[in-house]
Amino acid sequence: MLRPFMELPGPLVQGAAKVRRSRAARPLGALTGGFLTSSAVLFALLAFTGAAFGVGSIPVSGRVATALALTLGMLAVDVSGLRKGPYCRLTLQRQTPKVLDHKYGPVVGSLLWGLDTGLAWTTIRVSTATWVVFGLTVLQLAPWWSGLAYGVGFGLPLAVSTLGPRWRAGEEGGEPQWLVRLMYRVRPFVRAGCLAGLLAVGVLLAWRVLSGG
């Protein structure tokens, strides 16, 4: 995903690194903007759908119980899937096509990439946590601006990891291979973190059900 931002002909020296980061800023901004836009619109639509169907008029206890059932079900899916592969089976088993930047250019291609990935369910996931957050939003238990938080949580780490480090000379394709390797190494920990998060949400919802809140 980082290669379209960082490709630049010639050897990478300190001056080239500055130009590389400068040229990366526009497609990076387009990617983040597209991601933020689609995620914000998606979550706002989910919240609006819930409101339009009168979900907010259902007693909180009923909505919390429904959310608890959803969370426990998704947690069970994640636990059962630990031995079946590294990815969640309840999302599309696809990634955003890498040809977008070659077909439409680094800026427009990155924008389209962001619009696609910002929808969350259209690309490979490691956890069903996405569906739980969707459900909480429809049930009016999560705010409509959750998509904005999701987009910022994506954009800030990407900007830091892309523009911040000192790039090493001679890496294939101009892509920071250390970062690619790091992403693969932390994937099991991300999955474990998602499981822990789902468990924490389940415990919180169970406590609210038992306390009558």
Key terms for this structure?
single chain, mainly alpha, 8 helices, 213 residues
End-to-end Cα distance, whole Å, is 44 Å
| Percent range of helical residues | 55-70%
Q: Quick one: overall form?
A: globular
Q: Rg to the nearest angstrom?
A: 20 Å
In the predicted model, the low-confidence regions spanning at least 5 consecutive residues are 6-16, 169-174
Number of helices: 8
Summarize the structure.
The protein is built from 8 helices and no strands. With 213 residues, it is mainly α.
Please describe what this structure looks like:
This protein has 213 residues and is mainly α. 68% of the residues lie in helices and 0% in strands. Helix 2 runs parallel beside helix 5 and helix 2 packs across helix 6 (129-138). The longest helix has 39 residues, at 14-52. The model is unreliable at 6-16 and 169-174 (pLDDT under 50).
Task: Summarize the helices and strands and which ones pair or pack.
Layout: H1 3-6, H2 14-52, H3 60-80, H4 100-104, H5 106-117, H6 129-138, H7 146-163, H8 177-211
Helix pairs in contact: 2-5, 2-6, 2-7, 3-6, 3-8
